[in-house]
């Protein structure tokens, strides 16, 4: 890969995209379990995704913005509860609508990446036990959904992401910050196992219809660190968190063993990735002393005082991105990697620009070491419904005024557009962002 000292060049044919998820932007998704969660008052400021970005009606305008950002790829999810509002009852109109969306992307020469499950479950499926029910008949509903999509999009969609972030799905059974908001470690482990099985189901379903499709999971790599490295307890806990959030997912895909399972062997999970989708955001500080998993090193003077960790309060750790890429490459050395999400939830767009450049530099470092990274999808195209944080946390390269639905490209969006167009971080940009902002102190 060519690289001049005064600019950072990415490989030819590299994909530059943004990522979104149906429930976070579409509006009108009142037939899934997140809607139930929203109605139960668990979301900040009592926000709901009832309208969200009204993307269901404004998708053409949003895809124009995608083009304005010079993106050649886009990751979107298809809402299962729209396609099957009831068991075995296909909503043809909804399917046609998604087909039109795909056509509009292709018209703009944007390569679609379709996510089959991005957190939300149809209410009827959730009521049948959701992720805690592993009956064949129950899981077959998901296979049916995946097959229908692959049949419908054949020849138009080549890339599928099966499950978005299996380990994050577990949070719904560990905290009340995520649907369904239960706190039961046994259920959490079961849900993680089920969603991993659903990855295998999705892979085989898509391939049975479209053998040429490229299919891969999306794993959110966490970087857990002991709050106090001198404390044995903190170190043990950090390892435990690493097992459940990273190791268990990787092991299932490598060995066909579900979390904490030694005896059963799920052969159907083996060789179920044509590529790895990697999401990366932050590190976690771990200690029994901390109420939750902390995401900022509290002695960092930048955090809090200048509100640079605003939004979700995640303190960026660009080096962790490099470590995350290396880890996935070590685990699956023969598979290409797509960075399927990376970004920051903040109102401080100057901060977002810094963070973006720092992360892209880390990705480039991994590329230079020979790791086959084929594309980068920034999270997210537009500000959207950030799950339990509601509309407070803003990840978009494009701002949304949720009262008027007006979209405005942020400076970070313009910066991203320049990089995507050049397929490089040009010297002029590197000059503006000369060095890494900081490294958190662990
Ligand atoms: C999820 C997105 C979410 C983002 C920021 C990822 O874990 O896939 O849906 O908006 O993180 O929290």
General description of the model:
- The protein is globular and about 60 Å long.
- The two termini are 34 Å apart.
- It contains 14 helices and 14 strands.
- The mean pLDDT is 93.
- The strands form four sheets. Strands 2-3-4-5-6-8-10-11 form an eight-stranded parallel β-barrel, surrounded by five helices.
- It is of the alpha/beta class.
- It has helices at residues 22-25, 33-39, 55-68, 80-83, 92-107, 123-127, 136-153, 166-169, 185-209, 232-255, 318-331, 349-368, 411-422, 427-432; strands spanning 8-9, 15-19, 73-77, 111-117, 159-164, 214-220, 223-226, 276-280, 283-286, 337-342, 373-379, 398-401, 406-409, 424-425.
- α7 (136-153) crosses α9, α11 runs parallel beside α12 (349-368) and α12 packs parallel to α13 (411-422).
- It has a single domain (8-432), classed as Glycosidases (TIM Barrel, Alpha-Beta Barrel).
- The protein binds beta-D-glucopyranose.
What is the topology?
Blueprint: E1 8-9, E2 15-19, H1 22-25, H2 33-39, H3 55-68, E3 73-77, H4 80-83, H5 92-107, E4 111-117, H6 123-127, H7 136-153, E5 159-164, H8 166-169, H9 185-209, E6 214-220, E7 223-226, H10 232-255, E8 276-280, E9 283-286, H11 318-331, E10 337-342, H12 349-368, E11 373-379, E12 398-401, E13 406-409, H13 411-422, E14 424-425, H14 427-432
Parallel strand pairs: 2-3, 2-11, 3-4, 4-5, 5-6, 6-8, 7-9, 8-10, 10-11
Antiparallel strand pairs: 1-14, 12-13
Helix pairs in contact: 7-9, 11-12, 12-13
Bound molecules: beta-D-glucopyranose (BGC).
């Amino acid at each position: 890969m060519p690289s001049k000292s005064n600019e950072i060049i990415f490989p030819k044919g590299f994909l530059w995209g943004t990522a979104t998820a149906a429930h976070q932007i579409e509006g009108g998704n009142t037939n899934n379990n997140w809607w139930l969660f929203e109605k139960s008052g668990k979301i900040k400021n009592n926000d709901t995704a009832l309208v969200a970005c009204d993307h269901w009606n404004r998708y053409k305008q949003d895809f124009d913005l995608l083009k304005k950002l010079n993106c050649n790829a886009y990751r979107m999810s298809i809402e299962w509860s729209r396609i099957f509002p009831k068991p075995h009852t296909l909503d043809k109109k909804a399917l046609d609508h998604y087909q039109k969306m795909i056509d509009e992307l292709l018209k703009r020469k944007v390569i679609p990446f379709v996510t089959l499950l991005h957190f939300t479950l149809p209410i009827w499926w959730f009521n049948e036990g959701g992720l805690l029910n592993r009956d064949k008949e129950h899981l077959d509903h998901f296979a049916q959904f995946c097959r229908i999509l692959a049949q419908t999009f054949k020849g138009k969609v080549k890339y599928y992401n099966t499950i978005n972030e299996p380990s994050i799905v577990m949070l719904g059974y560990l905290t009340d910050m995520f649907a369904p908001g239960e706190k039961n470690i046994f259920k959490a482990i079961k849900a993680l196992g089920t969603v991993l099985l659903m990855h295998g189901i999705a892979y085989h379903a898509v391939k049975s219809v479209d053998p040429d499709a490229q299919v891969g999971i999306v794993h959110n790599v966490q970087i857990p660190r002991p709050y106090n490295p001198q404390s044995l307890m903190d170190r043990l806990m950090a390892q435990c968190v690493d097992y459940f959030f990273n190791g268990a997912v990787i092991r299932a895909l490598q060995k066909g063993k579900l979390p904490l399972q030694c005896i059963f062997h799920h052969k159907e999970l083996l060789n179920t990735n044509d590529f790895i989708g990697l999401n990366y955001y932050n590190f976690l500080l771990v200690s029994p002393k901390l109420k939750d998993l902390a995401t900022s090193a509290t002695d960092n003077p930048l955090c809090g005082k200048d509100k640079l960790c605003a939004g979700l309060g995640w303190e960026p750790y660009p080096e962790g991105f490099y470590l995350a890429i290396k880890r996935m490459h070590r685990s699956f050395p023969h598979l290409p990697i797509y960075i399927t999400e990376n970004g920051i939830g903040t109102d401080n767009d100057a901060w977002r620009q810094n963070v973006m450049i720092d992360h892209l530099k880390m990705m480039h470092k991994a590329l230079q070491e020979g790791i086959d990274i084929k594309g980068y999808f920034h999270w997210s195209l537009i500000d959207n419904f950030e799950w339990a944080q509601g509309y407070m946390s803003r990840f978009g390269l494009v701002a949304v005024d949720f009262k008027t639905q007006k979209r405005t490209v942020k400076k970070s969006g313009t910066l991203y557009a320049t990089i995507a167009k050049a397929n490089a971080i040009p010297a002029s940009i590197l000059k503006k962002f000369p060095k890494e902002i900081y490294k958190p102190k662990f």
